[in-house]
């Protein structure tokens, strides 16, 4: 994927008409082309010149791991500056969802997440995020399917890379390009309040999820260090404004850590915070990242869900495929294939 502004500038520079930029953009997005040589509408000489000047892919796929059940695939990509990022494809009967990384690593450093374990490498560009989706769109095309959903729930905190993430959304949604419906896109944030407020002002159909993980400041300070900057009262005030202004459902995510955040005190506090219209809580079983936490059983998850539902919270348990290939939530760490094992 190439920034459309770069395409336009290149065509102008080459003395080419502006519609050539549009043709290349359409071929790369809607047509899923990976090289200029394959863009048949261009004169052969122009294909050659473009290939000398521009790189149609911003990421190189290095390795793919597929789950035995065939319901998840994880691909490791390399950036031109030698960084590694991962994205995941989750295949369901009706949907095919790509989980996109927005940064190399993450600066937030949540206690249970592998992505933040080594801090932030750098933020990804919009094109680098779009290329993760286009990669899986090509794989799906080969089996007669399409990407129906994109979630910014891979490595990184999308709201600490706001402009590029929203830029990626716009590119993915562009009806003249890839053409993914905005309702099929979800951004997940650990609670960067200024960005959440900015997002509230956007005219968009993109879904929003807020990673909560604790219902008291004392516990959330420990699990999600960003809470020290944007504590719960501030975060939930911004959430209430979002729902009031946009009149859209707001999703909350809660990684269940047995003995840490699933006790009576947290359940009671959660019900108080989230028992209101248009709020929906997704419970996620903790996926092992080699840390101090245990994984909850199905029965524990259901018990917490039932307790919350009885207290008036709209709440479901979310399935997270890909655990066996370390592609599930929180397990993306982008260790190089030759790097140390985890
Ligand atoms: N930085 C953003 C988006 C990426 S994380 C955020 O935190 O929302 C996407 C989701 O995966 C978040 O809800 C996150 O808390 C969850 N997650 C992180 N580590 C996990 C783990 N070990 N097990 C299960 N879910 C995890
Ligand atoms: Fe970063 Fe999200 Fe992982 Fe927290 S859960 S470290 S915000 S990627």
Characteristic key phrases:
single chain, 342 residues, alpha/beta, DNA polymerase, domain 1, TIM Barrel, 2 domains, ten-stranded mixed beta sheet, two-stranded antiparallel ribbon, 10 helices, elongated, disordered C terminus, binds S-adenosyl-L-homocysteine, binds iron/sulfur cluster
The percentage of residues in β strands lies in 15-25%
* CA(first)-CA(last) distance: 32 Å
Strand count, sense and closure of the main sheet? 10 strands, mixed
CA radius of gyration: 21 Å
What CATH architecture of the largest domain would you give?
Alpha-Beta Barrel
Structural class: alpha/beta
Question: Please, what is the CATH homologous superfamily of the largest domain?
Answer: Aldolase class I
* CATH class wording of the largest domain: Alpha Beta
Mean pLDDT: 94
Q: Which regions are unreliable across 5 or more consecutive residues at pLDDT < 50?
A: 336-342
* β-strand number: 12
Bound molecules: S-adenosyl-L-homocysteine, iron/sulfur cluster
Strand order of the largest sheet: 1-2-3-4-7-8-9-10-11-12
Within the CATH hierarchy, at the fold level, what is the topology of the largest domain?
TIM Barrel
What is the H-and-E element order? HHHEEEEEEHEHEHEHHEHEHE
Principal-axis shape equals elongated
What is the domain tally? 2
Helical proportion?
Answer: 25-40%
The helix count comes to: 10
């Amino acid at each position: 994927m190439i920034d459309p502004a770069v395409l336009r500038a290149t065509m102008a520079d080459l003395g080419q008409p502006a519609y050539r930029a549009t043709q290349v953009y359409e071929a790369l997005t809607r047509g899923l082309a990976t090289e200029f040589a394959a863009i048949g509408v261009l004169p052969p000489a122009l294909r050659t010149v473009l290939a000398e000047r521009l790189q149609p892919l911003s990421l190189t796929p290095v390795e793919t791991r597929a789950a035995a059940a065939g319901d998840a695939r994880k691909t490791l990509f390399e950036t031109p500056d030698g960084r590694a990022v991962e994205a995941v494809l989750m295949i369901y009967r009706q949907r095919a969802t790509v989980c996109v990384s927005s940064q190399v690593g993450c600066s937030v450093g949540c206690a249970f997440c592998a992505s933040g374990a080594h801090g932030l490498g750098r933020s990804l560009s919009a094109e680098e995020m779009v290329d993760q989706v286009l990669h899986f769109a090509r794989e799906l095309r080969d089996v007669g399917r399409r990407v129906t959903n994109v979630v910014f729930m891979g490595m990184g905190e999308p709201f600490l890379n706001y402009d590029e993430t929203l830029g990626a959304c716009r590119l993915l949604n562009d009806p003249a390009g890839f053409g993914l419906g905005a309702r099929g896109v979800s951004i997940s944030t650990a609670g960067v309040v200024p960005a959440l407020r900015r997002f509230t002002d956007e005219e968009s159909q993109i879904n929003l999820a807020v990673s909560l993980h604790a219902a008291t400041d004392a516990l959330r300070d420990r699990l999600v260090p960003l809470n020290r900057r944007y504590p719960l009262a501030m975060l939930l005030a911004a959430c209430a404004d979002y729902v009031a202004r946009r009149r859209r459902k707001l999703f909350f995510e809660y990684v269940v850590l047995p003995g840490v955040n699933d006790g009576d005190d947290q359940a009671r506090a959660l019900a108080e915070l989230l028992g209101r219209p248009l709020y929906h809580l997704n419970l996620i079983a903790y996926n092992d990242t080699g840390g101090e936490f245990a994984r909850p059983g199905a029965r524990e998850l259901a018990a917490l869900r039932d307790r919350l539902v009885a207290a008036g919270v709209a709440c479901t348990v979310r399935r997270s495929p890909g655990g066996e290939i370390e592609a599930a939530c929180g397990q993306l760490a982008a260790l190089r294939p030759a790097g140390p094992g985890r």
